[in-house]
Amino acid sequence: MTNFFRVGMAAAGLLASLTAWAQECAPFQFWVLNQSGEGNAIAINFVISNADGAVQTEGVWEVTSAGMTAEFCLAAGCYSIAISGDEVSSENVGLELFQSDFVQILELTPADQEGFWDAAFCIEQGWQYNCPEAIDYAEGEGCTWAFEIGSFQEGEEVMWNFGDGSEPIWGGHFIEYEFETAGTFEVNAFFTSYDCPMGVELQTVIEVSGCGEAECVLEMEVSTEDGMFYTFSIPDELANNEIQWYIDGQPIEGANSTSFEAGFDFNPNWSVCVDVYTEACPDGMEACYSNLEGDCALDLVWNEVECNQFALQAVGQPEGATLIWMLDGEFYDYIVPEIVFTFEEEGCHVFGVGYETPDCPEGVFAEVEICSDCPPMEECELNVDYVELSAGIYLFSVYAPNGELFDGELNWWTNGGYVGSENPFAWTWDLEEPMTMDMCFDYSSWQDCPSGEMCIQVESQGMACEEVQLLLDGSWTAEVDWSFELGLEAFIDGWEIAGWSFEETWSADGEISDTLTICVPPACFDVFWGWEATNVTVELLLISVLIEGGDSAVLFDWFDPFNEPGFGLLPDCNNAVSAVALEQEKIHSWPNPAHTEIRWQLPMDWVSGELQVFDARGRQVHMERVFQGAGRLDVSSWPVGLYSARWSGQEHLYVPFKILIVR
Fold first, then answer.
1. What is the CATH number of domain 221-290?
2. Between 2.60.40.10, 3.30.1160.10, 2.60.40.3950, 3.40.50.1000, what CATH number should domain 383-460 receive?
3. Where are the domains of the chain?
4. Given this structure, which CATH class describes domain 299-372?
5. 209, 181 contact by CB (below 8 A)
6. Is the preceding omega at residue 434 within 30 degrees of 0, hence cis?
7. Architecture of domain 588-661
């Protein structure tokens, strides 16, 4: 198992040199480290060979205490590097491989030939990058400018920073922006897309003039003596301009001066606004006053969850308000009404939350300072392991340092995308051929472990699959073309296999007959289905699956849609607990995961039966007749992996449970 670490935008600087290579080979770099501590350069002879042992390139590196980088370009595949020299050893030399978006630390081991050290590595297919090179811009009307980066690309995301002190804006390759004042502004944009996955940072400088001279802001003064009769006024110098007063959004006839009086009796909910149009502000200015109760309320409450973790909640905001969270004056999160924050070290932070709505145009903001005097969490290393459920299908598990299954929040990532959050987590890359893949996860703080992330590399096999046929016969009448969708989800030993799914949509008006041959993993399958809501008359809609060997099963019948559809390619897919066995009755087993021994206990009314244990490939590894309600299994010699155990008795026909063996 090889550990490696993700590299983010810092790798963008190396992208230019990597993309200079021809695309027939995949570019990469070695980072060679001189760890001798002597201050002298080390002469290192190196030979890189392919999987057949043929030498691809060789040479000599002179590595100083500052280290060095060496660029290569090889066809995708797996290789070995052999190094030698008078001072070469695994203690004196470190070797790291950089390609695309990850760094792999190579492990040097003594070779068969004395004085040589070997390491294995694999090169992935090089990317074809297409990144834009400049920001184009055009001055529009008033203070509005238009900016464009190249043309549209699939998956594009751009973080724009217009250099005027405003918050960055996420958008696409084209955006319009209105500056509030004149000046010289440095516009920056970080662009990413499917064709430019590592991203590129672009910059331009513009000169904005003629903006901000007229400050079109209107102030209103409000006074009252009895709380029922009010006087509203705006500056007298605006008297010769177009003025209109409103109550609750309705214009008041003849109310066109710089002052306005109105009485509201006991009406608790009202608003007064005024619009003014001047030569300097042709688009108008507006000021409003409202006594609407509770519409602009907001409070920030918090409590200490544990010594260095705090929960903060915004309360009192109107329904539909979009909340913006700030941390020490910087954007932190949005929308959610509650956040949980963990202090990584002793100190204080200022938390703030606010919103703007049409009824609260000036915005509402609340903040609080929270201090923690708890010592920082000590670093702790999580362990990640995996077992192969079937060829190319894996069950990943994350454990705390004490051997317990990690029970905090975590997210699994692979190929640059989020794929799940369960632990354990079943996954397949759905490969046709073996390939080296990476699986990463990030995790929140839990118990004594601070948050962090980790990656492992998996030599994945091609996913095993078997062909089945889907048969559809249907006849319906609809006002328009009507579509029906059916999908499959795969399970092995109760674990849903992420990374594989099947969906198909049929659309027609009238009779339809179709046969599909698909390749599915050796698993159990659940069926899901749906259709467009429209006026349709169905005479027949029946979908079946035909498995090799002649077995068939109905997946969907329009006239019996809730018949628990499903089928399987494993022996235990259709096994179930007998109806006399209550759902809450379970066989308890512990510790699970286990290292050397696992204990089990039956419910009180179970007397005798047979206990069987099968490995991930369905082979029986243990069987015994049991005549008592509890016992233990010696698993010290069992290989690491996931096992399915099943209890069968006279009254309880079949009750499964799982055993996970780790070391």
1. 2.60.40
2. 2.60.40.10
3. 4-123, 136-208, 221-290, 299-372, 383-460, 466-568, 588-661
4. mainly beta
5. no
6. no
7. Sandwich (2.60)
The fold of the 136-208 domain, in CATH, is Immunoglobulin-like (2.60.40)
- 653 close to 610: Cβ distance less than 8 angstroms: no
pTM (predicted TM-score)? 0.38
CATH domain 4-123 topology: Immunoglobulin-like (2.60.40)
How confident is the model over 347-365, as pLDDT tens digits? 899 999 998 877 777 778 8
pLDDT score of 401 more than 50: yes
Decide if 409 contacts 452 (C-beta within 8 A). no
For residue 195, count other CB atoms closer than 10 A to its CB.
15
Lowest mean pLDDT among 66-80, 242-256, 405-419: 405-419
Q: Give the amino acid at 437.
A: M
Which pLDDT does position 55 carry in this prediction?
Answer: 92
Domains 136-208 and 383-460 share a fold: yes
pLDDT exceeds cutoff 70 at 76: yes
Q: Among residues 22, 6, 4, which one has the least CA distance to residue 75? A: 22
| Distance between start and end Cα atoms, the chain | 14
CB 201 within 8 A of CB 135: no
Q: Cβ atoms within 10 A of the Cβ of 218, count?
A: 19
Local confidence band at 480 (pLDDT 50, 70, 90 cut-offs)? low
- The encoded tokens of residue 365 equal 């903001």
Rounded CA-CA distance 516/505 in Å is 12
Q: Is 18 helix (H, G, I), strand (E, B) or coil?
A: helix
Count CB atoms within 10 A of the CB of residue 638.
18
Per-residue pLDDT reduced to its tens digit, 512-567: 788 888 888 988 888 877 766 556 777 787 888 888 765 677 887 777 765 555 67
CA distances from 129 to 159, 467, 609 (A): 19, 37, 63
Selection from 229, 139, 155 nearest residue 194 by Cα: 155
Rounded CA-CA distance 323/395 in Å is 39
pLDDT in tens, 156-203: 889 999 998 888 998 888 898 988 877 889 999 999 887 887 788 999
| pLDDT for res 158 | 92
> Could you read off the pLDDT of 590-602 as tens digits, one per residue?
777 778 888 888 7
Question: What CA–CA distance (Å, rounded) separates 216 from 431?
Answer: 62
